[in-house]
Amino acid sequence: IIGMFFQDGLTGSAWGDWANYTQSPLRAFENELGVQAPVGFWDPLGLSKDGDVDTYNRRRESELKHGRISMLATMGYITPEVAGKFDGLLAPTEGLRFADIPNGLKAISVVPAAGWLQILFFMSFAEVSGISDRTDVNYAKPGQFGFKVLTADDPAKLKKKLNSEIANGRLAMMAIIGMFFQDGLTGSAWGDWNNYTDSPLRGGFFL
Predict the structure, then answer these.
(1) Which of 7, 62, 11 shows the shortest CA–CA distance to 34?
(2) With contact defined as beta carbons under 8 Å apart, do 17 and 7 qualify?
(3) Both ends of the chain: CA-CA distance in Å?
(4) Which of 19, 60, 101, 103 has minimal CB crowding within 10 Å?
């Protein structure tokens, strides 16, 4: 009944068309990239209800960055299992070969400190080099770092590609978190849940 009161007050009917709610702050962003079926513009916490464009663009920038990193991370989990690992030595002074590095979270304790420093340096370089070339103010062009892979002369095709990037990034963010959890609990990103011997479900409460 509370929902009916709200919908009636905002649209003129308890089952009115939300298109009639012309004062909705969501209208500022309902045609943006990433607004896709079946949920449309989905903002359950109301973070964009103030209609602040600069804040919205900053959050879109963060979403794109995290999505791109998650897509790379997900492929980083899968590729060594499917395509194998490099031949040769990773750390010659320690006699450590690429093949000796386990996949997933176990690699954290095996890769030498110098290797992690190189990884962190490259991450910092990628972050800073992209920002230094930005000329837009307040993230007016979120996600654009001059690396034009997703491009097309046809505006409709370009929009489809950019929407696909956002959708795949969202999926990858969920996927990599799932991989981390499963890896941590079973020993592999696609490990057998029977290996999670400390599971509270083994008490029979949900069986």
Answers:
(1) 62
(2) no
(3) 36
(4) 19
Return d(Cα 2, Cα 7) in angstroms, integer.
9
Beta-bridge partners for 36: 40
* pLDDT tens series, the chain, 207 aa: 887 776 677 667 776 665 655 555 555 677 788 888 777 777 777 788 787 888 888 888 889 989 999 999 999 888 988 888 888 898 888 889 998 988 888 888 899 999 999 999 998 887 777 666 666 676 777 777 766 677 778 888 888 888 899 999 999 999 999 999 888 888 877 778 787 777 676 555 544
DSSP state of 91: E
In the chain, the amino acid numbered 96 is L
pTM above 0.90, yes or no: no
Angle (CA) 178 124 56, round 5° = 65
176 in Cβ contact with 169 (< 8 Å): no
